[in-house]
């Protein structure tokens, strides 16, 4: 059976969030815990994150009309939905926010008992988990109540089935999270553990950066990864803080 591919695919990490800012503050101060009192799903964009998303929207709006995204899949987390909505508001896609396909399989990696802990906090409160992660590596380590990268990959496999089944020929924008961007690369490019971890070691996925694919050969071919020009060209700061503790990401 012939594989059905989207006509174009962009995968975007959300703009900088209040959680990213809080995490940076905790790490700088050497605190064990990130100061957030709301659920991760409810964390909003920071003011900088809003400007990053607006800049991204104007970059998409600068494309010819017949080359802009005509389908939007988005994580249910507010920072991702707000990023996509701001892209639409700037003319980057004709898809109204009410017609975004909000898909729970694109949600952030779940950190379980390690949620909101910095590296120091994990080593202090859960030294056994710090040891397990060192032994197993982030690809396979699953904290209690949380997910490994493999778990994220398993849910994204079915997401790609949906993408190929329902969006053949469409220009699709996905707005999600750092680990989701990396795990989608793993799947789309048929990588192994060593290859995707080598990509991860090169640096974090920047907020509102663009990873782009087009059909080619026998699948989707990577055109660019972690592309930050849409943010840079408007003079906005490029940020790449993880959503999670470095030790748990």
Task: Please summarize what this structure is.
The chain has 249 residues and is of the alpha/beta class. The protein has helices at 18-29, 47-61, 78-89, 119-125, 127-136, 149-166, 178-188, 193-201, 229-232, and strands at 8-13, 71-74, 101-102, 171-176, 210-216, 219-227.
Report on the architecture of this protein.
This protein is of the alpha/beta class and 249 residues long. The chain has a single domain, classed as Rossmann fold, CATH 3.40.50.1240. 39% of the residues lie in helices and 14% in strands. It has nine helices and six strands; from the N terminus they run E-H-H-E-H-E-H-H-H-E-H-H-E-E-H. It has a six-stranded mixed sheet with strand order 3-2-4-1-5-6. A hairpin with a 2-residue loop joins strand 5 and strand 6. Helix 2 packs across helix 3 and helix 7 crosses helix 8. It starts with 7 loop residues before the first strand and ends in a 17-residue tail after the last helix.
Topology of this protein?
Elements: E1 8-13, H1 18-29, H2 47-61, E2 71-74, H3 78-89, E3 101-102, H4 119-125, H5 127-136, H6 149-166, E4 171-176, H7 178-188, H8 193-201, E5 210-216, E6 219-227, H9 229-232
Parallel strand pairs: 1-4, 2-3, 2-4
Antiparallel strand pairs: 1-5, 5-6
Helix pairs in contact: 2-3, 4-5, 6-7, 7-8
